[in-house]
Amino acid sequence: MTKPSLRDRRRGGVRSRIRTVTRGGLLTAILLVLMAGPALADPAVPTNYRSIVNVVDPQPTGVTVEVVGGDAFLSVAAAEGNTVEVPGYFGEPYLLIDDSGDVWLNTRSPARYINQDRYGVTQIPPTADAQAAAEWEQVGTGGTFSWHDHRTHWMSPDLPPTIDGDRAEVVFPWSLTITINGIETEVRGELLWFPNVNPAGPLLVGFLGILPLLAYRRHRVNSVAITAAALAAIALFVSVVQFAATPSFDRGAPVDTVIPAIGIAAAVTALWLRKSTIRSWAAVELAGISVLWWAASAAVAITAPVLPSALPVSVERAAVSLAIWIGVGLVAIAARELVLATRQRTT
After folding, report:
1. HEC per residue, 257-308
2. Is the pTM of this model over 0.90?
3. To 10 degrees, what angle do helices 277-298 and 258-272 make?
4. Would you kindly state where each structural domain of the chain is located, as residue ranges?
5. pLDDT tens for each residue of 191-248
6. What CA–CA distance (Å, rounded) separates 25 from 17?
7. SS3 49
8. Is 1 helix (H, G, I), strand (E, B) or coil?
9. Which residue of 19, 104, 130, 218 has the smallest Cβ count within 10 Å?
10. CA dist list (Å): 57 to 63, 185, 186
């Protein structure tokens, strides 16, 4: 059998290192997402719907009722000294905020389980019985609680049959009666639908952001890695703000922050390994893939008219568009440099 030449051995070693770095990074990302997956709740997402509260009658003092996350959550906030009682879908006790600000849910209420999911598909346990005496479980403090109230939003991923799809319209009016400080209070509102926005503006901003990458100097990883780190940091910031905007009872694990964090780590690794051409560019490649992965998961924000975030919608759309365009540029540049470096090493 012919003994491999030195060039063949080097070529095999280079390719092996590239595969090891890339596979290791991707495997880490996948494992982190899979481990966090079971802890996911049901957060608000970009949507075409907005539900609003129009009237609270009689108007209470020290208690606010609003819809947050577009149409995702009905939220009640009561100052200390006030009590709020919210019934379930069968008239049974569901939610209680006592005068000290402690928040309680009735574990025997079917609504306790139906409200865990945006579309109400959570399985109801046999112990749930609207006719049974209430059994209260404390789920929070501070006098504030938010939940998926299915009286205030559309209960299907399909478009309502009354919506034409080309202009803003009222889907339906809604109402429910809650008890505030022993007084029956009617909360009335309406669900609105909005058409998608034109993505041309955000996409143009993102395209302009890629232009500096076109001037990068060949074989110089520093500027590209710094760009990757900055972009991944922007993505991480957007994800953290989105996570913070979700009511605490439905936050779950901050899964959306995992991928940008991996992108930052990969970009910093590229700077640390800058003297090792192949390894540093492989790390940039991983950073670019992470940014693109995040952008793909958030791409709906570019066209959705309602974004459940504390950020201005223009800022969030521009961030996602930048991640798309610059992510493509990072992956392309890193792939090109890896090919050139591999050829140079093997010759």
Report:
1. HHHHHHHHHHHHHHHHCCCCHHHHHHHHHHHHHHHHHHHHHHHHHHCCCECC
2. no
3. 160
4. 7-43+196-346, 49-193
5. 999 999 999 999 998 888 887 777 676 767 888 999 999 999 999 999 999 888 777 7
6. 12
7. strand
8. coil
9. 218
10. 12, 5, 5
